[in-house]
Amino acid sequence: MIPFVRDITFEYGVCDRLTPMIRRVVANNPGPFTFRGTGTYIIGNGEVAVIDPGPDMDDHLEAILAATAGERISHIFVTHNHMDHSPLSRPLAARTGAVIYACAQQGLATESEVRMEAGDDRVFRPDVGLCDGGVFKGGDWTIEAIPTPGHTSNHICYALLEENALFSGDHIMGWSTTVISPPDGDMGDYFASLERIKARSFATLWPTHGPPVTEPAPFVQAYIDHRRAREGQILAALASGQTRIKAMVPVLYKDVDSRLHAAAAHSVMAHIIQLVKEGRVLCEGPPGLDSDFRPAA
């Protein structure tokens, strides 16, 4: 069972000092996918970096600028191009002269795809692409970009090497599991990315939404175990004759807010697509939300 952490104390628009090198300002955009809102992180002192500027909200922009008054924002790092993470990067860069860094690869989407969270920021383009990762140095900080596809194909986590801390975006969150929504989200990639982060033994995880995870090793393992357990539940449902995703979701997610069931259906589809790739589940034609599935012999 995942040991979720949901207690977080803050005031919208107020910059809180979290560690000697980390500050946070939370945007006033709470919701079923953003929890209490987007946490924008300010790294370092003097010459600083900003991670996930968040939604394009004038009051949030002014709060970030007020929090860094007398300092220089040199780098803006974005975990992925969802509307609650990336849109404010360009207005912030225009006001500060900072350079925007992210994976420039555009995620896959279709017109029929149910929009999750706040949707995709389709116009987002970084100044510098870092899909293959990289290391960046500021006045008193060193940030390593770590590719972590899964939630999206272009998701990047950022490690603050001086504190052995990871800014995990939506890859790992303390308050909830992460939505994996095909065609851009990929469950096989997600499992591999979880293992990659687990192997790094970070001291703290700072998700973009919610409080930090202060015991990452058992938490990440619980995330992996939860996904494997869900995989087993899906196989059991198929074996019992539930052949369609929309019939499985109310049963598998009976204890989850019904507002999240559409997102849950996409995560189930991501699991099944991976099981089809592995030859453990069969499907006539390309797998989709309305497809019929059955377990392989």
Quick structural overview:
The chain is an alpha/beta fold and 297 residues long. The chain has helices spanning 58-67, 89-96, 187-200, 216-239, 245-252, 261-277; strands spanning 16-19, 22-26, 39-43, 47-51, 72-77, 99-102, 128-129, 134-137, 142-147, 156-160, 165-169, 204-207, 281-283, 293-295. It has a 7-stranded mixed beta sheet with strand order 1-2-3-4-5-6-7, with helices on one face. Strands 8-9-10-11-12 form a 5-stranded mixed beta sheet, with no helix packed on it. Strands 13-14 form a two-stranded antiparallel sheet.
List strands and helices in order, with pairings:
Layout lengths: L15 E4 L2 E5 L12 E5 L3 E5 L6 H10 L4 E6 L11 H8 L2 E4 L25 E2 L4 E4 L4 E6 L8 E5 L4 E5 L17 H14 L3 E4 L8 H24 L5 H8 L8 H17 L3 E3 L9 E3 L2
Parallel strand pairs: 4-5, 5-6, 6-7, 11-12
Antiparallel strand pairs: 1-2, 2-3, 3-4, 8-9, 9-10, 10-11, 13-14
Helix pairs in contact: 3-4, 5-6
Task: Describe this structure as you would to a colleague.
The protein is of the alpha/beta class and 297 residues long. The chain folds into 2 domains: 16-224, Metallo-beta-lactamase, Chain A, CATH 3.60.15.10; 225-295, Winged helix-like DNA-binding domain superfamily/Winged helix DNA-binding domain (Arc Repressor Mutant, subunit A), CATH 1.10.10. The protein contains 6 helices and 14 strands. It has helices spanning 58-67, 89-96, 187-200, 216-239, 245-252, 261-277, and strands at 16-19, 22-26, 39-43, 47-51, 72-77, 99-102, 128-129, 134-137, 142-147, 156-160, 165-169, 204-207, 281-283, 293-295. The strands form 3 sheets. Strands 1-2-3-4-5-6-7 form a 7-stranded mixed beta sheet, with helices on one face. Helix 2 links the parallel strand 5 (72-77) and strand 6 (99-102). The chain is elongated and about 65 Å long. The model is unreliable at 110-115 (pLDDT under 50).
